[in-house]
Design brief:
By secondary structure, the chain is an alpha/beta fold. The chain is built from 9 helices and 11 strands. The longest helix is centred in the first third of the chain and has 16 residues. The chain starts with a strand and ends with a strand. 36% of the residues are buried.
């Protein structure tokens, strides 16, 4: 059993980040598996070295150790090899459609706007995907339905090519897109179990189809509850939600760990007593008044 915690390094670590790391770590240690920390830093417009260092420091401060650490940006050659394999299958195409052009169309399972596969018929230019400039590159998915229920009972079934549309695999700015990178990285690391927040659940069926196209094994999945802002939105690095530096100034590592453990309805942070049956299935709200963190 090999699992991973894969935070994006695009902002300050916050209670939601740390809760997810704790649940991954407890699950792995309870089952005697291996835990990989993968620092997802390929969003070149948003990542900063200070945030990458911070998540490493925060997890170490909490006492969560990892069997391996992977820096995603160092894996670009493997991502490009995957693009080549998809190109050989005739599945890549350039896309000029913007988010604004999709706005007001058909809603997707992730709450955004579905892509209608408008550019599917466009060929790659001479030189292939590497010669595509200032346009996104998408992969034409099979029109197959994926039937899948995760280990927590969440139904992930979809027809991704219709429900979400063909995913971007290389962005306009040249960066490898999340959907492709995560599939390649999980496959290369031999990940057998993916534990992550429920906000990522709508992407799972798309990732399963990419795994099939690339001949990669399909992990088991589990999606846990989220911590929300009082307004009801997910705690997000983008919003600077309750940054770790503020938490560290207020709490010791043991005190903050105890708050996260209570939020997960557990008795302690011991793998010996960890049980997914006790972990809540509904999201909770995290409040911070500058002095205290309350999760309820």
């Amino acid at each position: 059993m090999i699992s991973r915690f894969a935070p994006s390094t695009t902002g300050d670590a916050h209670p939601g980040t740390l809760l997810s790391a704790l649940l991954v770590w407890l699950d792995v240690r309870a089952r005697g598996g291996q835990a990989v920390l993968r620092l997802e830093d390929i969003d070149i417009t948003r990542v900063k070295q200070v945030w990458r260092d911070q998540i490493v420091d925060a997890l170490a401060w909490l006492g969560l150790e990892w069997d391996a650490v992977v820096v995603q940006s160092a894996r670009t050659p493997r991502h490009e090899e995957a693009l080549d394999r998809l190109a050989e299958q005739g599945r890549l195409y350039p896309c000029s459609c913007s988010r604004a052009e999709r706005s007001g169309g058909r809603r997707a399972p992730d709450g955004g706007w579905a892509y209608e596969n408008t550019c599917r018929a466009k060929p790659l230019p001479p030189g292939g995907w590497r010669a595509v400039h200032d346009l996104a590159v998408r992969v034409r998915l099979p029109d197959d339905r994926v039937e899948l229920v995760d280990d927590g009972g969440l139904d992930l079934s979809q027809t991704p090519a219709y429900d979400l549309g063909d995913p971007i695999v290389r962005r306009r700015d040249g960066a490898i897109a999340y959907q492709l990178a995560v599939v390649v990285d999980d496959g290369d690391a031999g990940i057998t179990d993916v534990i992550r927040g429920r906000d990522i659940a709508p992407s799972t069926a798309t990732q399963v189809l990419l795994q099939r196209l690339l001949g990669l094994p399909q992990p088991r999945y589990r999606h846990h509850f989220l911590l929300l802002e009082p307004a009801g939105n997910k705690l997000a690095k983008l919003h600077g939600s309750i940054p770790w530096n503020d938490l560290r100034a207020r709490y010791s590592a043991a005190e903050l760990l105890a708050i996260l453990v209570r939020a997960a309805n557990l008795d302690d942070a011991s793998p010996r007593t960890f049980d997914w049956a006790r972990v809540p299935r509904t999201d909770k709200v995290a409040r911070w008044d500058g002095r205290d963190l309350v999760i309820a």
